[in-house]
């Protein structure tokens, strides 16, 4: 310390980033769009600790368990950073046995010790937005609403016609594996291999099954006849007529679920967004029924080089320095074989809660939206869209200015008083923090932040009980280019009228909180350790 020079490099850890400016604006709008849809469907929100007991997370994620961040033993409890929001939700349900049904959403950060590709939204610390329905209901109704919610969210984000929801059923997959002769102890391992078909060609997946996981080659070939299929209603009808699958109880049950689900999706007018994809397996161990994930044009590698590398097989698609080095420090943003991946995924998990409670079984179905991946694609689209509106970094409606001639004192008390009146009316307003600001600098400050209106104060106007309101950015020759005189007593009403907000509309949060006593709030407090 002191005289010795430090070699410490000031930076954020690999796979993380600081957020600011326009990126924060885009991300906040994504959060708002998703939350609006969640609330439209009657969801309530919860929050859980960012770290869980290690044993809570163990054994829930299949091969991906190696990506969990374990924390150092601080003396007492072994903990890990949460990998997703689903397992903590199931733990919460098991601890709160009085809750037998709930529509819940949760927006929070999760952590995975994966190889980052920052510009593609593949990070080690990232946000997930989860929506889950817990409770016993008639078959496929909650599942259908989850799909409908997914479509509403991507429509609200402006992705109409630019995404596909891949869907499958774990019972169908398990039935196919049984029919094809996969040993019971290899079901999850083979399922995990099949799940890689969106990233690797069938030849590579087949090699992994036979060489790495010891599956008989003939069994692998039979699996290939099914898992390379994809389509819509016609594929479902084809599978329903398959005598071998119909004779298998697991496949039969899964196909019946899908037939009913497709009927509901038709009613919800979202069936055209669906691709029945037999290669979709979802590697997480806790799924028991319908599974799905959302892909878009940014999900796969975006360059012809990347596509060529993928089709050439896994060994050629990834340089050795990336192959299995979980702790590798490489950022793979420029790796042409890496795409954004799925932007949302989920499914049914009927047995996860009972893993914690030991007795109580609460069926659940849900979906998780990867905000950072959605952000990555949205930002690319905005950059490519010349007609996209400029992104403002703040939401100020009015900039309060002052001007004057010789002897001008800056009218600071008057500017502060006007700002105070606007704030009281719920209007977002700013003024210069200089005692005697120059008018050009005030206009520049408003223009830089894209503030739509200015209130301009002058000695003569104030003496007459008036001020000017000016809409920024009007063309030369416009009759209101220089502003419009208004009565100071009507200031709030005039501003609210121009920014399109009814008078008297403010944040109702305070009213809601003031209407609840501390005793009432305490009654709703969930269980803790």
UniProtKB/TrEMBL annotation:
It is found in: Cytoplasm. Residues 1-301 form the Aminoacyl-transfer RNA synthetases class-II family profile domain. Its main location: cytoplasm. Residues 302-340 are annotated as: Disordered. InterPro entries: aa-tRNA-synth_II, aa-tRNA-synth_II/BPL/LPL, Anticodon-bd, Anticodon-bd_dom_sf, His-tRNA-ligase, HisRS-like_core, HisRS/HisZ, HisRS_anticodon. It is an enzyme of class 6 (ligase). Gene3D superfamilies: Anticodon-binding domain, Bira Bifunctional Protein, Domain 2. It comes from the Eukaryota. GO terms for molecular function: ATP binding; histidine-tRNA ligase activity; RNA binding. It catalyses: tRNA(His) + L-histidine + ATP = L-histidyl-tRNA(His) + AMP + diphosphate + H(+). One of its GO terms (biological process) is histidyl-tRNA aminoacylation. One of its GO terms (cellular component) is mitochondrion. L-histidine binds at residues 84-86, 112, 128, 132, 282, 286-287. Its EC number is 6.1.1.21. Pfam families: HGTP_anticodon, tRNA-synt_His. Catalyzes the aminoacylation of histidyl-tRNA in both the cytoplasm and the mitochondrion. Belongs to the class-II aminoacyl-tRNA synthetase family. This is Histidine--tRNA ligase, mitochondrial. It comes from Oleoguttula mirabilis. The lineage of its organism: Eukaryota, Fungi, Dikarya, Ascomycota, Pezizomycotina.
